[in-house]
Fold these 3 entries.
Entry 1:
Amino acid sequence: MYKKLVTFLVFSLYAPLAAFSADDPSRARLYMPVSTGVSFSDCTTCGGKASGYAARYVFGFGLGLGVASSKLALTGWPTSSTSANTIDFSVDTGPMMDIGYTFGSDFTFTLGLGVGSSPSSDKSLPGEATYKIEGKSASNTFLGLGYNFGSIEILLALRTIHTTFDESFTMSLLGMEFPYLAETIYDWQTTDIGIGFTF
Protein backbone atom coordinates (compact mmCIF):
# COMPACT_ATOMS: atom_id res chain seq x y z
CA MET A 1 0.00 0.00 0.00
CA TYR A 2 2.79 2.39 0.99
CA LYS A 3 4.73 1.58 -2.19
CA LYS A 4 1.67 2.28 -4.36
CA LEU A 5 1.11 5.60 -2.61
CA VAL A 6 4.73 6.68 -3.10
CA THR A 7 4.62 5.61 -6.77
CA PHE A 8 1.43 7.62 -7.30
CA LEU A 9 2.93 10.72 -5.65
CA VAL A 10 6.14 10.50 -7.68
CA PHE A 11 4.20 10.07 -10.91
CA SER A 12 1.82 12.94 -10.06
CA LEU A 13 4.85 15.21 -9.57
CA TYR A 14 6.67 13.94 -12.65
CA ALA A 15 3.78 14.23 -15.11
CA PRO A 16 3.46 18.06 -14.96
CA LEU A 17 7.25 18.42 -15.25
CA ALA A 18 7.29 16.18 -18.30
CA ALA A 19 4.50 18.17 -19.86
CA PHE A 20 6.18 21.51 -19.18
CA SER A 21 9.43 20.26 -20.68
CA ALA A 22 7.82 19.37 -24.01
CA ASP A 23 9.78 20.09 -27.18
CA ASP A 24 7.28 22.68 -28.43
CA PRO A 25 8.10 26.24 -27.36
CA SER A 26 6.10 28.36 -24.96
CA ARG A 27 4.45 31.44 -26.46
CA ALA A 28 3.37 34.89 -25.33
CA ARG A 29 0.66 36.33 -27.59
CA LEU A 30 -1.10 39.67 -28.00
CA TYR A 31 -4.15 40.24 -30.24
CA MET A 32 -5.92 43.43 -31.35
CA PRO A 33 -9.21 43.68 -33.33
CA VAL A 34 -8.98 45.10 -36.87
CA SER A 35 -12.57 44.62 -38.05
CA THR A 36 -16.00 44.27 -36.46
CA GLY A 37 -19.02 42.23 -37.46
CA VAL A 38 -22.33 43.16 -35.85
CA SER A 39 -25.86 42.74 -37.18
CA PHE A 40 -28.87 44.93 -36.48
CA SER A 41 -32.43 43.83 -37.16
CA ASP A 42 -34.59 46.53 -38.76
CA CYS A 43 -32.12 49.33 -38.07
CA THR A 44 -30.63 51.14 -41.05
CA THR A 45 -28.98 53.88 -38.98
CA CYS A 46 -27.07 51.58 -36.60
CA GLY A 47 -23.33 51.02 -36.70
CA GLY A 48 -20.75 49.45 -34.46
CA LYS A 49 -16.98 49.28 -34.04
CA ALA A 50 -15.06 47.17 -31.53
CA SER A 51 -11.80 47.83 -29.72
CA GLY A 52 -9.95 45.84 -27.11
CA TYR A 53 -7.21 43.27 -26.68
CA ALA A 54 -6.44 39.67 -25.82
CA ALA A 55 -3.22 38.57 -24.12
CA ARG A 56 -2.36 34.94 -23.64
CA TYR A 57 0.47 32.69 -22.47
CA VAL A 58 0.64 29.29 -24.15
CA PHE A 59 2.61 26.55 -22.41
CA GLY A 60 4.77 24.20 -24.43
CA PHE A 61 2.20 21.40 -24.20
CA GLY A 62 -0.52 23.60 -25.80
CA LEU A 63 -2.63 24.92 -22.90
CA GLY A 64 -3.14 28.67 -23.08
CA LEU A 65 -4.29 31.01 -20.29
CA GLY A 66 -4.96 34.70 -20.61
CA VAL A 67 -7.27 37.67 -20.36
CA ALA A 68 -9.34 39.47 -23.00
CA SER A 69 -11.53 42.56 -23.13
CA SER A 70 -13.73 43.97 -25.89
CA LYS A 71 -15.63 47.25 -26.15
CA LEU A 72 -18.31 47.87 -28.78
CA ALA A 73 -19.13 51.49 -29.69
CA LEU A 74 -22.67 51.70 -31.09
CA THR A 75 -23.99 54.63 -33.12
CA GLY A 76 -27.44 55.53 -34.40
CA TRP A 77 -29.27 53.31 -31.90
CA PRO A 78 -33.05 54.07 -31.76
CA THR A 79 -34.33 55.09 -28.33
CA SER A 80 -37.51 53.06 -28.86
CA SER A 81 -39.38 51.19 -31.57
CA THR A 82 -41.70 54.16 -32.11
CA SER A 83 -39.17 57.00 -31.94
CA ALA A 84 -36.98 58.43 -34.66
CA ASN A 85 -34.47 59.68 -32.08
CA THR A 86 -31.14 57.85 -31.86
CA ILE A 87 -28.36 57.63 -29.28
CA ASP A 88 -24.71 56.60 -29.23
CA PHE A 89 -23.33 54.42 -26.45
CA SER A 90 -20.84 51.65 -25.76
CA VAL A 91 -20.88 48.14 -24.32
CA ASP A 92 -17.80 46.84 -22.53
CA THR A 93 -17.23 43.19 -21.60
CA GLY A 94 -14.77 44.01 -18.84
CA PRO A 95 -11.97 41.49 -18.26
CA MET A 96 -12.69 37.93 -19.39
CA MET A 97 -10.52 35.01 -18.37
CA ASP A 98 -9.55 32.98 -21.44
CA ILE A 99 -8.57 29.35 -21.70
CA GLY A 100 -7.58 27.69 -24.96
CA TYR A 101 -5.54 24.99 -26.57
CA THR A 102 -3.01 25.33 -29.39
CA PHE A 103 -2.26 22.52 -31.83
CA GLY A 104 0.93 22.38 -33.85
CA SER A 105 4.36 23.95 -33.61
CA ASP A 106 5.33 26.09 -36.63
CA PHE A 107 1.85 26.29 -38.12
CA THR A 108 -0.66 26.44 -35.27
CA PHE A 109 -4.40 26.21 -34.76
CA THR A 110 -5.95 27.55 -31.55
CA LEU A 111 -9.44 27.29 -30.13
CA GLY A 112 -10.86 28.38 -26.81
CA LEU A 113 -13.34 30.36 -24.78
CA GLY A 114 -13.48 33.02 -22.12
CA VAL A 115 -15.91 34.16 -19.44
CA GLY A 116 -16.41 37.35 -17.46
CA SER A 117 -18.88 38.70 -14.95
CA SER A 118 -18.50 42.48 -15.05
CA PRO A 119 -19.76 43.92 -18.35
CA SER A 120 -20.72 47.60 -18.31
CA SER A 121 -22.39 50.18 -20.52
CA ASP A 122 -22.76 53.96 -20.64
CA LYS A 123 -26.18 53.70 -22.29
CA SER A 124 -28.84 56.20 -21.19
CA LEU A 125 -32.29 57.07 -22.49
CA PRO A 126 -33.22 60.75 -22.94
CA GLY A 127 -36.14 61.68 -20.71
CA GLU A 128 -35.91 58.48 -18.65
CA ALA A 129 -34.43 59.56 -15.33
CA THR A 130 -35.04 56.14 -13.79
CA TYR A 131 -33.27 54.21 -16.54
CA LYS A 132 -30.62 51.74 -15.35
CA ILE A 133 -28.49 49.17 -17.13
CA GLU A 134 -26.60 46.51 -15.19
CA GLY A 135 -24.22 43.94 -16.60
CA LYS A 136 -24.83 40.27 -15.89
CA SER A 137 -22.30 38.23 -17.86
CA ALA A 138 -19.87 38.25 -20.76
CA SER A 139 -18.30 35.44 -22.75
CA ASN A 140 -16.34 34.86 -25.93
CA THR A 141 -15.22 32.03 -28.16
CA PHE A 142 -12.27 32.19 -30.53
CA LEU A 143 -10.54 30.33 -33.34
CA GLY A 144 -7.01 31.24 -34.32
CA LEU A 145 -4.26 30.49 -36.80
CA GLY A 146 -0.59 31.25 -36.45
CA TYR A 147 2.73 30.80 -38.19
CA ASN A 148 6.05 30.82 -36.42
CA PHE A 149 8.99 32.63 -38.06
CA GLY A 150 11.76 31.58 -35.74
CA SER A 151 11.05 33.41 -32.49
CA ILE A 152 8.17 35.55 -33.83
CA GLU A 153 4.61 34.41 -34.56
CA ILE A 154 2.13 36.06 -36.91
CA LEU A 155 -1.42 35.48 -35.67
CA LEU A 156 -4.99 35.73 -36.94
CA ALA A 157 -8.11 35.03 -34.87
CA LEU A 158 -11.89 35.15 -35.20
CA ARG A 159 -13.67 36.00 -31.95
CA THR A 160 -17.39 36.00 -31.07
CA ILE A 161 -18.45 38.06 -28.04
CA HIS A 162 -21.69 37.70 -26.08
CA THR A 163 -22.88 40.05 -23.31
CA THR A 164 -26.06 40.11 -21.22
CA PHE A 165 -27.54 43.10 -19.40
CA ASP A 166 -30.61 43.90 -17.30
CA GLU A 167 -32.30 47.14 -18.35
CA SER A 168 -34.99 48.80 -16.23
CA PHE A 169 -36.96 52.03 -15.99
CA THR A 170 -40.36 53.27 -14.84
CA MET A 171 -43.12 53.79 -17.40
CA SER A 172 -46.02 56.19 -16.87
CA LEU A 173 -49.36 55.08 -18.26
CA LEU A 174 -52.78 56.62 -17.52
CA GLY A 175 -51.36 58.45 -14.54
CA MET A 176 -49.87 55.31 -13.07
CA GLU A 177 -46.26 54.15 -12.96
CA PHE A 178 -45.20 50.65 -13.93
CA PRO A 179 -41.72 49.13 -13.64
CA TYR A 180 -40.19 47.81 -16.85
CA LEU A 181 -37.44 45.18 -16.72
CA ALA A 182 -35.88 43.36 -19.65
CA GLU A 183 -32.83 41.25 -20.37
CA THR A 184 -30.87 42.62 -23.31
CA ILE A 185 -28.19 40.77 -25.26
CA TYR A 186 -25.46 42.38 -27.35
CA ASP A 187 -23.43 40.12 -29.66
CA TRP A 188 -20.60 40.98 -32.02
CA GLN A 189 -17.66 39.39 -33.82
CA THR A 190 -14.14 40.63 -34.37
CA THR A 191 -11.29 39.68 -36.63
CA ASP A 192 -8.05 40.03 -34.68
CA ILE A 193 -4.45 40.13 -35.75
CA GLY A 194 -1.63 39.53 -33.34
CA ILE A 195 1.99 38.90 -32.68
CA GLY A 196 3.55 36.19 -30.58
CA PHE A 197 6.98 35.53 -29.14
CA THR A 198 8.23 31.99 -28.72
CA PHE A 199 10.88 30.94 -26.21
Note: The beta strands are 27-37, 47-58, 63-78, 86-92, 96-103, 107-116, 120-121, 132-149, 152-173, 176-198.
Entry 2:
Amino acid sequence: MNLPSYQPKKPPEGQYVFKIVKDVDKDRKHGPQGDFISITFYFKIQSPDGGIRDFRESILPWDDRYRDILLALGGEEDERGDVHLSDMIDIIGKKFIARIKHVPDKDDPRKTWARITDIEVDRDRGSDEEDVPPPANGEYEEPSDDEVPF
Protein backbone atom coordinates (compact mmCIF):
# COMPACT_ATOMS: atom_id res chain seq x y z
CA MET A 1 0.00 0.00 0.00
CA ASN A 2 1.40 3.38 -0.99
CA LEU A 3 0.92 6.12 1.55
CA PRO A 4 0.32 9.69 0.40
CA SER A 5 3.29 12.03 0.60
CA TYR A 6 3.28 13.92 3.87
CA GLN A 7 5.16 16.80 5.41
CA PRO A 8 4.55 17.10 9.13
CA LYS A 9 3.63 20.59 10.25
CA LYS A 10 6.40 20.39 12.86
CA PRO A 11 9.91 20.33 11.44
CA PRO A 12 12.29 17.85 13.06
CA GLU A 13 14.44 19.08 15.93
CA GLY A 14 17.81 20.38 14.83
CA GLN A 15 19.76 23.35 13.54
CA TYR A 16 18.44 25.41 10.62
CA VAL A 17 19.15 28.58 8.66
CA PHE A 18 16.14 30.88 9.11
CA LYS A 19 15.34 33.45 6.40
CA ILE A 20 12.60 36.06 6.88
CA VAL A 21 10.19 35.92 3.93
CA LYS A 22 7.44 38.32 5.01
CA ASP A 23 6.99 41.32 7.28
CA VAL A 24 5.95 40.42 10.82
CA ASP A 25 2.32 40.42 11.88
CA LYS A 26 1.51 42.16 15.15
CA ASP A 27 -1.74 41.05 16.76
CA ARG A 28 -3.36 42.58 19.81
CA LYS A 29 -4.47 39.83 22.21
CA HIS A 30 -6.56 39.89 25.36
CA GLY A 31 -5.42 37.97 28.42
CA PRO A 32 -6.19 37.79 32.13
CA GLN A 33 -3.51 40.42 32.82
CA GLY A 34 -4.79 42.77 30.09
CA ASP A 35 -3.99 43.46 26.45
CA PHE A 36 -0.67 42.49 24.88
CA ILE A 37 0.91 42.17 21.42
CA SER A 38 1.91 38.88 19.79
CA ILE A 39 4.48 39.08 16.99
CA THR A 40 4.46 36.43 14.24
CA PHE A 41 7.59 35.85 12.18
CA TYR A 42 7.47 34.05 8.81
CA PHE A 43 10.50 32.06 7.64
CA LYS A 44 11.88 29.69 5.06
CA ILE A 45 14.11 27.29 6.98
CA GLN A 46 16.88 25.17 5.54
CA SER A 47 18.22 22.06 7.24
CA PRO A 48 21.88 21.01 6.98
CA ASP A 49 20.91 18.41 4.35
CA GLY A 50 19.47 21.15 2.12
CA GLY A 51 15.78 20.56 2.80
CA ILE A 52 13.68 23.75 2.71
CA ARG A 53 10.27 24.38 4.23
CA ASP A 54 8.05 27.16 5.55
CA PHE A 55 7.93 27.91 9.26
CA ARG A 56 6.31 30.56 11.40
CA GLU A 57 6.43 31.37 15.06
CA SER A 58 4.51 33.77 17.26
CA ILE A 59 6.54 35.30 20.06
CA LEU A 60 5.62 37.67 22.88
CA PRO A 61 7.77 40.79 23.30
CA TRP A 62 8.90 39.83 26.82
CA ASP A 63 10.19 36.43 25.60
CA ASP A 64 14.03 36.39 25.51
CA ARG A 65 13.84 34.76 22.06
CA TYR A 66 12.21 37.94 20.71
CA ARG A 67 15.23 39.97 21.84
CA ASP A 68 17.61 37.41 20.33
CA ILE A 69 15.78 37.44 16.98
CA LEU A 70 15.91 41.25 16.87
CA LEU A 71 19.66 41.17 17.56
CA ALA A 72 20.15 38.53 14.85
CA LEU A 73 18.23 40.71 12.37
CA GLY A 74 20.39 43.78 13.05
CA GLY A 75 18.67 45.32 16.06
CA GLU A 76 20.56 47.62 18.38
CA GLU A 77 20.68 47.45 22.17
CA ASP A 78 19.98 50.73 23.99
CA GLU A 79 21.50 51.92 27.28
CA ARG A 80 18.80 50.09 29.30
CA GLY A 81 19.53 46.80 27.51
CA ASP A 82 16.33 46.85 25.44
CA VAL A 83 16.69 45.89 21.78
CA HIS A 84 14.99 47.88 19.05
CA LEU A 85 14.80 47.26 15.33
CA SER A 86 14.80 50.45 13.33
CA ASP A 87 11.86 50.95 10.99
CA MET A 88 14.48 51.72 8.35
CA ILE A 89 15.81 48.13 8.41
CA ASP A 90 14.21 45.84 5.81
CA ILE A 91 14.11 42.45 7.51
CA ILE A 92 12.88 40.47 4.49
CA GLY A 93 15.77 38.32 3.33
CA LYS A 94 17.69 38.60 6.62
CA LYS A 95 19.05 35.30 7.94
CA PHE A 96 20.23 33.73 11.15
CA ILE A 97 21.04 30.29 12.50
CA ALA A 98 19.02 28.69 15.28
CA ARG A 99 17.73 25.37 16.51
CA ILE A 100 14.21 24.02 16.57
CA LYS A 101 13.23 22.18 19.71
CA HIS A 102 9.94 20.38 20.42
CA VAL A 103 8.48 21.76 23.65
CA PRO A 104 5.59 20.08 25.52
CA ASP A 105 2.31 21.99 25.72
CA LYS A 106 1.78 23.31 29.25
CA ASP A 107 -1.87 22.17 29.29
CA ASP A 108 -1.65 18.88 27.36
CA PRO A 109 1.59 16.87 27.72
CA ARG A 110 0.60 14.73 24.70
CA LYS A 111 1.11 17.78 22.44
CA THR A 112 4.38 19.47 21.52
CA TRP A 113 5.21 22.72 19.76
CA ALA A 114 8.19 23.46 17.53
CA ARG A 115 10.04 26.44 19.03
CA ILE A 116 13.07 28.44 17.94
CA THR A 117 15.98 28.23 20.41
CA ASP A 118 19.72 28.98 20.50
CA ILE A 119 19.51 31.91 18.10
CA GLU A 120 22.91 32.93 16.71
CA VAL A 121 23.87 36.27 15.24
CA ASP A 122 25.65 35.49 11.96
CA ARG A 123 26.72 38.78 10.41
CA ASP A 124 28.59 36.97 7.57
CA ARG A 125 25.39 35.68 5.92
CA GLY A 126 24.16 38.43 3.62
CA SER A 127 20.62 38.86 2.39
CA ASP A 128 21.80 38.56 -1.22
CA GLU A 129 22.58 34.86 -0.89
CA GLU A 130 20.14 32.68 -2.80
CA ASP A 131 20.68 29.42 -0.93
CA VAL A 132 17.17 29.77 0.52
CA PRO A 133 14.78 30.70 -2.30
CA PRO A 134 12.18 33.44 -1.83
CA PRO A 135 8.56 32.39 -1.34
CA ALA A 136 6.57 31.50 -4.46
CA ASN A 137 4.75 34.53 -5.88
CA GLY A 138 6.21 36.67 -3.08
CA GLU A 139 3.75 35.23 -0.56
CA TYR A 140 4.28 33.07 2.49
CA GLU A 141 2.67 29.67 2.02
CA GLU A 142 1.25 27.57 4.82
CA PRO A 143 2.72 24.05 4.93
CA SER A 144 0.29 21.56 3.50
CA ASP A 145 -0.20 17.91 4.38
CA ASP A 146 0.42 16.80 0.78
CA GLU A 147 3.93 18.23 0.36
CA VAL A 148 6.88 15.86 0.08
CA PRO A 149 9.11 15.81 3.19
CA PHE A 150 12.75 16.81 2.87
Note: The chain has one domain: 14-124.
Entry 3:
Amino acid sequence: MPRLEVLENKKLVLKNILRKELKNMGLEMLDEEVNKFDFLLNKLAVQKFGPLVMKSSGIKISDGGVVMMDYDLLIQAHNYQQFKSAFESIDRLEIPNCIYVHFEGSPEDIQFAHSKLDLHFYENDIQQTGEVYSIIIEDSHQHTVVDIFKPVKIL
Protein backbone atom coordinates (compact mmCIF):
# COMPACT_ATOMS: atom_id res chain seq x y z
CA MET A 1 0.00 0.00 0.00
CA PRO A 2 1.41 3.42 -0.90
CA ARG A 3 2.44 5.86 1.78
CA LEU A 4 0.18 8.84 2.47
CA GLU A 5 2.14 12.00 1.76
CA VAL A 6 0.98 15.14 3.55
CA LEU A 7 1.60 18.42 1.72
CA GLU A 8 1.33 21.94 3.15
CA ASN A 9 0.37 25.30 1.65
CA LYS A 10 -1.95 23.82 -0.95
CA LYS A 11 -4.78 25.88 -2.43
CA LEU A 12 -8.12 24.49 -3.55
CA VAL A 13 -9.69 26.50 -6.38
CA LEU A 14 -13.14 25.80 -7.77
CA LYS A 15 -14.96 27.74 -10.51
CA ASN A 16 -18.53 27.89 -11.79
CA ILE A 17 -19.97 26.08 -8.78
CA LEU A 18 -23.41 24.82 -7.92
CA ARG A 19 -23.84 24.35 -4.19
CA LYS A 20 -26.38 22.41 -2.14
CA GLU A 21 -26.26 23.03 1.59
CA LEU A 22 -27.13 20.24 4.03
CA LYS A 23 -27.55 21.35 7.65
CA ASN A 24 -27.57 19.07 10.73
CA MET A 25 -27.19 15.94 8.66
CA GLY A 26 -26.44 12.55 10.17
CA LEU A 27 -23.77 10.54 8.39
CA GLU A 28 -26.28 7.77 7.68
CA MET A 29 -28.32 10.18 5.51
CA LEU A 30 -25.39 11.59 3.54
CA ASP A 31 -25.26 8.94 0.78
CA GLU A 32 -28.98 9.38 0.12
CA GLU A 33 -28.61 13.17 -0.13
CA VAL A 34 -25.60 12.85 -2.47
CA ASN A 35 -27.62 10.49 -4.69
CA LYS A 36 -30.55 12.96 -4.74
CA PHE A 37 -28.15 15.79 -5.66
CA ASP A 38 -26.61 13.73 -8.49
CA PHE A 39 -30.04 12.66 -9.74
CA LEU A 40 -31.24 16.28 -9.85
CA LEU A 41 -28.08 17.40 -11.67
CA ASN A 42 -28.63 14.71 -14.30
CA LYS A 43 -32.37 15.45 -14.58
CA LEU A 44 -31.65 19.14 -15.16
CA ALA A 45 -28.91 18.26 -17.72
CA VAL A 46 -26.24 20.17 -15.82
CA GLN A 47 -22.98 20.18 -17.80
CA LYS A 48 -20.70 19.08 -14.96
CA PHE A 49 -16.94 19.12 -15.05
CA GLY A 50 -14.66 17.77 -12.39
CA PRO A 51 -15.59 15.53 -9.49
CA LEU A 52 -18.01 16.07 -6.62
CA VAL A 53 -16.57 18.13 -3.77
CA MET A 54 -17.96 17.69 -0.28
CA LYS A 55 -17.29 20.26 2.40
CA SER A 56 -17.96 19.14 5.95
CA SER A 57 -18.02 21.39 9.00
CA GLY A 58 -19.95 22.19 12.13
CA ILE A 59 -19.96 18.99 14.18
CA LYS A 60 -22.80 18.90 16.71
CA ILE A 61 -23.84 16.16 19.10
CA SER A 62 -27.49 15.96 20.07
CA ASP A 63 -28.73 15.26 23.59
CA GLY A 64 -29.28 11.67 22.47
CA GLY A 65 -25.65 11.37 21.37
CA VAL A 66 -26.32 11.54 17.63
CA VAL A 67 -23.50 13.19 15.66
CA MET A 68 -24.75 15.80 13.18
CA MET A 69 -22.70 17.80 10.67
CA ASP A 70 -23.15 20.52 8.13
CA TYR A 71 -22.22 19.63 4.56
CA ASP A 72 -21.99 21.46 1.28
CA LEU A 73 -22.19 19.48 -1.94
CA LEU A 74 -20.28 21.35 -4.64
CA ILE A 75 -20.04 20.62 -8.35
CA GLN A 76 -18.44 22.66 -11.10
CA ALA A 77 -20.65 23.20 -14.15
CA HIS A 78 -20.22 24.96 -17.47
CA ASN A 79 -23.85 26.13 -17.48
CA TYR A 80 -24.06 26.82 -13.73
CA GLN A 81 -25.71 30.27 -14.05
CA GLN A 82 -28.84 28.65 -15.52
CA PHE A 83 -29.62 26.88 -12.26
CA LYS A 84 -29.69 29.76 -9.75
CA SER A 85 -33.28 28.88 -8.83
CA ALA A 86 -32.39 25.28 -7.88
CA PHE A 87 -28.96 25.80 -6.29
CA GLU A 88 -26.74 28.51 -4.94
CA SER A 89 -24.24 29.48 -7.63
CA ILE A 90 -20.72 30.63 -6.87
CA ASP A 91 -18.40 32.09 -9.51
CA ARG A 92 -15.12 31.21 -7.80
CA LEU A 93 -14.11 29.65 -4.50
CA GLU A 94 -10.51 29.74 -3.26
CA ILE A 95 -9.45 27.92 -0.13
CA PRO A 96 -5.78 28.84 0.54
CA ASN A 97 -3.39 27.53 3.19
CA CYS A 98 -4.55 23.94 3.23
CA ILE A 99 -2.90 20.77 4.42
CA TYR A 100 -3.52 18.09 1.78
CA VAL A 101 -3.36 14.34 1.31
CA HIS A 102 -4.24 12.11 -1.64
CA PHE A 103 -5.86 8.77 -0.74
CA GLU A 104 -6.28 5.71 -2.94
CA GLY A 105 -7.48 2.44 -1.50
CA SER A 106 -10.31 0.60 0.15
CA PRO A 107 -13.15 2.85 1.37
CA GLU A 108 -12.89 1.48 4.90
CA ASP A 109 -9.27 2.70 5.09
CA ILE A 110 -9.98 6.38 4.37
CA GLN A 111 -9.91 7.13 8.09
CA PHE A 112 -6.12 6.63 7.91
CA ALA A 113 -5.85 9.66 5.59
CA HIS A 114 -7.89 11.78 8.01
CA SER A 115 -5.85 10.52 10.95
CA LYS A 116 -2.59 11.29 9.14
CA LEU A 117 -3.77 14.85 8.50
CA ASP A 118 -4.87 15.28 12.12
CA LEU A 119 -1.51 13.95 13.32
CA HIS A 120 0.30 16.42 11.03
CA PHE A 121 -1.71 19.31 12.50
CA TYR A 122 -0.92 18.09 16.02
CA GLU A 123 2.81 17.43 15.50
CA ASN A 124 3.33 20.81 13.82
CA ASP A 125 1.15 22.75 16.28
CA ILE A 126 -1.13 23.98 13.49
CA GLN A 127 -4.78 24.85 14.12
CA GLN A 128 -7.56 23.68 11.81
CA THR A 129 -10.59 25.72 10.79
CA GLY A 130 -12.84 22.70 11.31
CA GLU A 131 -13.66 22.44 7.61
CA VAL A 132 -12.74 19.49 5.41
CA TYR A 133 -12.97 19.52 1.62
CA SER A 134 -13.10 16.04 0.08
CA ILE A 135 -12.77 15.77 -3.69
CA ILE A 136 -14.26 12.42 -4.62
CA ILE A 137 -12.45 11.29 -7.74
CA GLU A 138 -13.58 7.66 -7.62
CA ASP A 139 -15.95 5.97 -5.22
CA SER A 140 -16.96 2.31 -5.35
CA HIS A 141 -17.34 -0.43 -2.76
CA GLN A 142 -13.89 -1.79 -3.63
CA HIS A 143 -11.81 1.30 -4.42
CA THR A 144 -11.88 4.97 -3.46
CA VAL A 145 -9.77 7.89 -4.67
CA VAL A 146 -10.14 11.12 -2.67
CA ASP A 147 -8.15 14.33 -2.34
CA ILE A 148 -8.58 15.82 1.13
CA PHE A 149 -7.93 19.49 1.94
CA LYS A 150 -8.05 20.82 5.51
CA PRO A 151 -7.67 24.59 5.80
CA VAL A 152 -5.27 26.05 8.35
CA LYS A 153 -6.62 28.59 10.83
CA ILE A 154 -4.72 31.85 10.34
CA LEU A 155 -4.04 33.52 13.67
Note: The longest strand covers residues 6-26.
